[in-house]
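dumping this here before i forget
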Amino acid sequence: MAWSGHHDVEVTVLLREVLTDDTALAVLSRAVGVLAARHLLSAALTARAPGSWAQAADTPWKAAHAWLLVVAGRGATLEGYLYSACATGRGVGEDEESPAAGVALTALDQGLDLHGLDPHAPWRPPATPAQATRAAAAGVSGPSLTSRDLGDNAAYDLYHTLLLVMDRTRLLPDEAYLEPPDPFEDETDDQPPRPWNADWMYQDDQGHWHLDHDRADDDPDGFRTWTTTHPVMAATAGRYSIGTRYDQGVSIQGRPPERHGPGIPPGQAALALLLTAATARLVYGYSHTYQRRAQRHWQHRRARQRRRQERRRHQH
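structure:
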């Protein structure tokens, strides 16, 4: 039996206790964001490599996009699982607003920051209560949200990061950055391409189009409009699957039996943070192992599809 088969219940019970502390919740939610960003960038670099399964597909960027949706979905599942444990430990109802959900969302956003991210550099969660407190000090507050609100916002933030990663690794086609052709305009050969949004899209010296990540972050409404109305981006309807994966995380263990006792006393915050660091280590190891297994499964599936296509071509 796998590691998770032996220890899921123990980790869930531990999380219900630990996550009654806002700093512990912030540390773990930030860890989810860091892991999701690292996994997305690593998967994108793999898909971008010459000879990869994505490059062998009929439309490489769509194949990469489909795989990155799976990777982002794992981050949503993990965040849903963590917040469900948190809500159970705090006695928060499924449809009840809680500031804890705002804490989780703020920390998740911090973890998803791509600035200076190196997927090959090792990452470790904070090892001491003091380090954990400093890591979460930049934002352990947020608006009161329901679990559904948290799931919707987390899904959007993960998809936002997915597209920034695709831009960073040059997986998006140029057409995704440009205004669609106007059928009522006469096109001339010397007409320069027009970016869909000139405020945060630009062309480099080699003619490649890019997003200005900082400016795009400052225009969430415009970014959302681009992903939902641009003909190239709107064709990727699978983006909604990330929210579904958050729901799976909420129900992955069901709602476990209610905990007994008063939880962690206020004077034992240091113990809560130490347990949080240990739990983050376990979650990291488990999710990384799961990612490798799922990626191998995806590659085998693509290989089987290619073999079937080749057999059909030979038959005709």
